[in-house]
Amino acid sequence: MNRDTLLHIVRFIVLVLVQVTILNHINFLGFLNPYIYIIFILLAPININKSLFLVISFILGLIIDMFGDSGGVHAAACLVIAFFRPVALRSVFGLSYEFQTVKLSQVGFGERFAYVILMVLTHHIVLFSLEIFNFSHILLIVKKTLFSSLFTIVITMLVLVLFRRNDS
Fold it and tell me: Coiled-coil annotation: which residues (predicted)?
């Protein structure tokens, strides 16, 4: 097992622990919850085996669901963004993604911010649509998606800046 694999395993465990022990208990104003566990999906290696990545992402969401008793909505949302990730990477990074030379720690703030926004909004739209699952509550879905996304994006960007790796 190499150093990068160990780093990803530790990142997975730490993000799950922080999410289930601290962040799942934050319910600011009744609808603001940060979901930073998706940082694991955002930072996964570009060249990871696609099938393995989908399985790991599903397991990540399933673990969050088990601790939150949320019936599979996190597993579904994680699976969707893991599947959507190549599209988001291609949209934001273009040729750098095509040649697999993207390192999130080395791209500009604007590109990193666009990528995080795209992934977080996608995750949250799926999450809250499945959680509420009632079209007559579309405004509640939009409100929860926007405010929780804003909260998650701010915390995610802070984490990415504070724990940036210097890849040479």
Answer: none
Burial class of 150 by CB neighbour count within 10 A (0 to 12, 13 to 18, 19+): middle
Q: Which tens digit of pLDDT belongs to each residue from 96-147?
A: 666 666 777 778 889 999 999 999 999 999 999 999 988 888 999 999 999 9
Q: List the one residue out of 87, 65, 80, 58 whose CA is nearest residue 20.
A: 65
Cα atoms in the 13 Å half-sphere on the side-chain side of 31: 16
Q: How many C-beta atoms lie closer than 10 Å to residue 7's C-beta?
A: 12
∠ CA 40-117-58, nearest 5°, is 35
Q: Count structural domains, the chain.
A: 1
The answer to whether residue 118 is domain-embedded is yes
Place of tokens 């809250």: 128
In a domain, 167, yes or no: no
- The whole-angstrom separation of Cα 113 and Cα 121 is 12
Q: How distant is the alpha carbon of residue 10 from its chain centre?
A: 16
Collapse the DSSP code of 17 into the 3-class scheme (helix H, G, I; strand E, B; otherwise coil) and give the result: helix
Does residue 41 lie within any of the structural domains? yes
Q: How many residues does the chain have?
A: 168
SS3 32: strand
58: in domain = yes
What residues make up the domain containing 95?
3-162
